[in-house]
Design goal:
The complex is a heterotrimer of chains A (about 230), B (about 80) and C (about 200).
Chain A lengths: L1 E10 L2 E7 L11 E7 L5 E7 L8 E7 L7 H7 L5 E8 L13 E6 L3 H13 L6 E7 L8 H7 L4 E7 L16 H7 L8 E7 H13 L7 E6 L3
Parallel strand pairs in A: 7-8, 7-10, 8-9, 10-11
Antiparallel strand pairs in A: 1-2, 1-6, 2-5, 3-4, 3-6
Chain B lengths: L3 E2 L4 H5 L10 E4 L5 E3 L4 E5 L2 E5 L6 E7 L4 E4 L3 E5 L3
Antiparallel strand pairs in B: 1-4, 2-3, 2-8, 4-5, 5-6, 6-7
Chain C lengths: L23 E2 L20 E5 L4 E5 H5 L4 E8 L4 E12 H5 L8 E6 L4 E5 L9 E6 L2 E2 L9 E3 L12 E7 L26
Parallel strand pairs in C: 1-5, 2-11
Antiparallel strand pairs in C: 2-3, 4-5, 5-8, 6-7, 6-11, 8-9, 8-10
The chains are: A alpha/beta (about 230), B mainly beta (about 80), C mainly beta (about 200).
């Protein structure tokens, strides 16, 4: 059971929410929770959300993008208020995760709200002062649609590189014109397959499929490319 | 209809198994492909989860949850390797 | 029953005393699937009925030449959604079984993509079932089973196989895909026969 303690608008259609969850003993970066909402007549809806935080406090941060036909996301983005309570199951998932004990280079590729589990990994990487080389390629429609933009920019350093990719509207003077991610973009911006990086790709299904296909074409071992496709509204 | 990844099953499966089934490797009975279940394709039909092999598309397992019981059919998998 | 989430109501739904027990009314048409949507062209499409003595096959035009009719009916999904007053257009199974001879009393419906579901033959006859290719005046969307699906509205909607490919006559009521996974062998919404 979690109680909302903080909410913050991140994008025109999304926000981050911090819950206080008594008894929470922390989570590994990349894990998710299943959130269950119950209506007064007994109707229930369950959706999975990646956890943006990766510490051992009792605070759990999620970030949700409102989907137009959504059933749960509009409630979480527009209606949920500080003090409200929500049921959680988790932390869940042992595969799409990164632990600070890992030293190989890591390429993170996120689309829209798919950035959330990757943010957890970047935060864990920073908190552990890990020297593993991290690179993030974050694809959004336009700058205002990025989650945690300021935080990500501020974490850039010798072991963390960040590349932005805009698909609909790029800032004035941006070297790459707005457009969907291509194999050339990945060849240019992603850690090459010859460095044997671990790769994490997260976002809407179409984005993840396209990126994964291109990465394999660029020589990445399919088993090294971990994907998390987002489903539900 | 698009699918999601097997790691989205971690929650429902956590009610049934004490270990994380999504990090176990399973062999597809149809094509022999061996991979972690987190990579399988999950079609989230609310009637039940249908989990398909990412190589050949054949059904690996189905999970149907009702008020009285959960029905789990693992017959599409011919062997699970559970990490200790 | 969980903790009530303040202000959460979920998808638009109503309780309606005219509905079968446990159902909600919806305006949407939810898409539910156990697998990927098959990519089908009506030029290669066929429909086959297999009996104890052989098989009869129709292509798209041949099947439609048997005569189509409009159907107005309610549909009930086992996931608790009901949609009232839906309109379809298709070929009644009575017209198909006029051309088929069989002593067998049970049917296995099978679809492009591998889905199966079983039904007694008498539940497909006497104006109770159709092969439909239009919904709401438009060609049936692939997501909803197009180009053609079976429509057996007096049973839960999982018995109305999408992407229908054919029927196999069987001696016994052998279970299809969901029936093998805990779903009721018959599926009458009015008796709430969801699972066994």
């Amino acid at each position: 059971m979690g109680t909302v303690v903080e909410t913050k608008t991140e994008t025109p259609s999304g926000r981050s929410i911090v819950f206080e969850v008594p008894g929470w003993t922390g989570n590994v970066a990349g894990q998710h929770v299943d959130v269950r909402l119950s209506a007064p007549d007994g109707y229930q809806a369950v959706r999975s959300y990646s956890i943006a935080s990766a510490d051992s406090t009792e605070r759990v941060q999620l970030a949700v993008d409102k989907l137009p036909d959504g059933e749960v996301s509009p409630y979480l983005v527009d209606d949920l208020q500080v003090g409200d309570q929500v049921e959680f199951r988790g932390p869940l998932g042992g595969w799409f995760v990164w632990r600070p004990t890992e030293t190989q280079p890591v390429q993170l590729i996120g689309g829209g709200s798919g950035i959330v589990p990757l943010v957890a990994m970047i935060r864990a990487h920073a908190a552990a002062a890990s020297t593993a080389h991290f690179k993030l390629l974050y694809s959004v429609r336009k700058p205002a649609d990025a989650f945690f933009a300021d935080e990500l920019n501020s974490l850039v350093g010798p072991n963390f590189e960040l590349d932005w990719l805009y698909t609909r509207e790029a800032p004035d003077g941006w070297p790459r014109p707005a457009g969907r991610i291509t194999q050339d973009d990945l060849a240019r911006l992603a850690i090459p397959s010859t460095d044997s990086p671990g790769v994490f790709v997260c976002g809407p299904t179409g984005f993840v499929e396209t990126v994964a296909t291109h990465l394999v074409a660029l020589g990445h071992d399919p088993i090294a490319v971990k994907t998390e496709r987002f489903g539900g509204a | 209809m698009s699918h999601v990844d097997g790691n989205s099953l971690a929650g429902p499966l956590s009610e049934l198994f004490r270990f994380d089934l999504t990090t176990t490797s399973g062999e597809c009975r149809h094509c022999g492909d061996v991979t972690v279940l987190a990579r399988a394709m999950v079609y989230p039909d609310p009637s039940g989860y249908v989990v398909r092999c990412c190589a050949c598309g054949d059904v690996l397992l189905t999970i149907v949850t009702t008020e009285k019981r959960t029905w789990l059919d693992l017959s599409g998998i011919s062997g699970l390797q559970i990490p200790t | 029953m969980g903790i009530i989430s303040r202000g959460f109501s979920g998808r638009s739904r109503e309780h309606n005393p005219d509905l079968p027990p446990g159902q909600y009314l919806t305006d949407d048409f939810p898409v539910l699937s156990a697998g990927p949507t098959p990519d089908l062209d009506t030029t290669d499409w066929t429909f086959t009925v297999q009996t104890e003595s052989g098989a009869t096959q129709w292509n798209w035009d041949e099947l439609h030449a048997l005569g189509t009719e409009e159907v107005h009916t309610d549909i009930h999904c086992v996931t608790r959604w009901s949609k009232l007053a839906t309109t379809w257009k298709g070929i009644p199974l009575d017209a198909i079984f006029d051309k088929v001879e069989t002593e067998r009393e049970f049917v296995m419906e099978y679809s492009y993509g591998g889905y199966t579901t079983n039904v007694p033959l008498e539940d497909l006859l006497d104006g109770k079932a159709w092969i439909v290719s239009e919904f709401d005046g438009e060609p049936l969307d692939p997501e909803h089973g197009g180009p053609a699906r079976l429509l057996v509205p007096h049973l839960y909607f999982w018995k109305s196989a999408k992407w229908i490919r054919g029927l196999i006559m069987q001696d016994d009521d052998e279970p299809g895909f969901w029936e093998q996974n805990g779903y009721h062998i018959y599926g009458d919404p009015w008796k709430e026969q969801r699972y066994w």
